[in-house]
Design goal:
With 131 residues, the chain is α+β, with helices and mostly antiparallel strands. The protein has a single domain (2-127), classed as tt1808, chain A. It is built from three helices and seven strands. It has a five-stranded mixed beta sheet, with helices on both faces. A two-stranded antiparallel sheet has the order 2-3. Helix 1 (7-24) crosses helix 2. The relative contact order is 0.20. It comes from Coraliomargarita sinensis. Pfam families: PDDEXK_3.
């Protein structure tokens, strides 16, 4: 069940990203995709924050420094956008580090680079809220 945590919200996010890619194609700047995806999320009524400051922790202590992800969807999904030829291990590690220091359970790495949209979903089980 934990692998399904926020899966519907993620499905909606990816659907919005596909809509942006369908409209614009690949190979444009990350900033263009960022703004376009923000508009599409708004059109579809998907709650998000753009460039929101997320709290960062060290050994359980809140730091003054904040992390600012590209998008923060449904209050729990960290989204890192790219417009590169291919996603690298470095991009994946970057997102996982962001998720860990902000204690967010789900992250999406979305690449608008050509020729097609590529996305990956990541889950850190230790940060899934007990309901």
């Amino acid at each position: 069940m934990r692998d399904q945590y926020l899966s519907e919200e993620g499905y909606q996010l990816v659907g919005a990203a596909y809509e942006v890619h369908k409209e614009l194609g690949g190979g444009l700047s990350e900033e263009i995709y960022q703004e376009s995806l923000e508009l599409e999320l708004g059109f579809q009524g998907i709650p998000f924050d753009s460039k929101a400051e997320l709290r960062v922790y060290y050994k359980g202590h809140l730091l003054n420094k904040r992390y600012i992800p590209d998008l923060h969807v449904n209050d729990e999904i960290v989204v890192e956008l790219k417009s590169v030829k291919s996603i690298t291990e470095e991009h994946e590690k970057q997102l996982l580090n962001y998720m860990r220091i902000t204690k967010k359970p789900v992250g999406y790495l979305v690449n608008f680079g050509p020729p097609s949209l590529v996305w990956k979903r990541y889950i850190l089980n230790e940060y899934i809220h007990k309901k």
